[in-house]
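Fold it.
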Amino acid sequence: MHVRRSLNCAVQIKIATPPRMCYTWFFEGIIWRRTHLLNNGRDIALFSARTADDRKADDVVVYDVRGITDVTDYFVIATAHSRSQVRAVVESIKKALKSINIRKMGQEGSEAGSWVLIDYTDCVIHVFSPELREYYALETLWGDAPKLNWKRDKIKDKEIADLLKRERAQEEEDDAAKAASIGG
């Protein structure tokens, strides 16, 4: 069992059950809410890194911090060069994961700003402007953690893998439509 207290004072208790299943209980005031998750932090991290890369984020890195910190299992760090790019990366990740019922635990920073953190409990995603990434230097803090090769590692959760395929197919269709409208 894993107990975690979030920034908004909610208490979260996660109870591991058979493979690929996890029940998370959120305590908010006097209400206990159970969510059923069919995913893991690794797959969310790989998906988020690929989505950030698809949205032209630079220097995307995924750290496996299991055993190093109790805060999360995986960190994804990406650089976006404008506020609109920060917003695009964050919105793409949130929208896609929400479509398969993966809900964020919290979000910090401003999508209109130059840094956003999205907390999916087992995976925390940071999207920084180049200046803030250099200032906070999270790589120096978590540099001892092993890095995942997010470009080559396979996503094990079928639902997340199918989502990534659909996203890429939609992007190819959009690109083809743009090319046809420009050329014709």
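The first strand starts at residue 2 and ends at 5.
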